[in-house]
Amino acid sequence: MDPAVAVNASAPLESLDEWESDVLERYPEEGHQFRDYTADVRPTVREFYRLNHINQTHEFVKAKKAKYSSLEMGKKSVWEAMEFLNTLVDDSDPDTDATQIEHLMQTSEAIRADGHPRWFILTGLMHDLGKVLCLYGEPQWAVVGDTFATGCRYSDKVVFSEFFADNPDAKVAKYQTENGVYEPGCGLENVHLSYGHDEYLYHVVKDYLPEEALYMIRYHSFYPWHREGAYDHLASDKDRENLKWVLEFNKYDLYSKVDERPNVEKLRPFYEELIAEFFPDKIRW
Ligand SMILES: [Fe+2]
Ligand SMILES: [Fe+2]
């Protein structure tokens, strides 16, 4: 086994969230400056992206989709999945970081406070549940981080794009043209983005939530597209139309990382009712 993979596979999720919040929280007052990778980013963040960029090949992405998109990891209610995800947090030091459920509720509560519709609130509550991939044994670089298109030329709008030089796909000529294996304007649904929690959760919820919610879930980590305007040549008019929802969602995902911790037990009845409205039964994961 690749030693880099072995090290990474055993790393707990909280260290993954640590790098995320470290980058995000250094600029709590500056909104769009939340994610500044140009400053003195910690070595763990660089190393995370190095592993992500060298290991996420086009073939790797297709293999993970084949493995997980058929939803054969068991049935769980949404609340059960939230509690399952929460087991990844180290409770030996509960005051250091928000738990996974707390992050989800911070996001959904911020959306709710702004008077958005119920499906939007529920999307906030669920958006990171795909991180249960970590509990299936997937390494962090296959679960989180900004996503990028595989099977076509790497965009220099992707963070730490210099690491792509060591991805085996960099030497595959057909993957390094502007459109690669795709047709221009084919739509993002036909583009194989680097694998992670966005893509997995999309397949879990696609029959239950409205299209706007599905865009938020599937593309919230696709920063090169929604923040930088990269890959527009592969997007469809439908993608461009829905981009506004991804952007609308994203501000809550970022800002909620510095909010007060929510009272989970107090809020639980509201959310159980909201979940039941869209997911009356357990769903396949
Ligand atoms: Fe996420
Ligand atoms: Fe999130």
From TrEMBL:
GO terms for cellular component: cytoplasm. SUPFAM superfamilies: HD-domain/PDEase-like. It is found in: Cytoplasm. It comes from the Bacteria. The keyword Cytoplasm applies. Its cofactor is Fe cation. InterPro entries: Inositol_oxygenase. One of its GO terms (molecular function) is inositol oxygenase activity. Keywords: Cytoplasm, Iron, Metal-binding, Oxidoreductase. One of its GO terms (biological process) is inositol catabolic process. Pfam families: MIOX. Gene3D superfamilies: Hypothetical protein af1432. This is Inositol oxygenase. It comes from Fimbriimonas ginsengisoli Gsoil 348. The lineage of its organism: Bacteria, Bacillati, Armatimonadota, Fimbriimonadia, Fimbriimonadales.
